[in-house]
User: What shape does this take?
Amino acid sequence: MVYLWRYADEAGVVADGPMVEFTSQEAAENWLGEAYPELLEDGIAAVSLFNDHQAVYGPMSLSPA
Assistant: This one.
């Protein structure tokens, strides 16, 4: 099983972002916890987590509440 993030901009349009594959949901979430400030700087407003081709959750906003 491979977990990966898909990215969206402020308008909800699919955006390019780092194509990093993870072996577990926990590893993917830990990476996001460290990487989200850079993603925001690059114009990524939301992320969705996928397991292979199946959505786990999202879209989830990266903007502070």
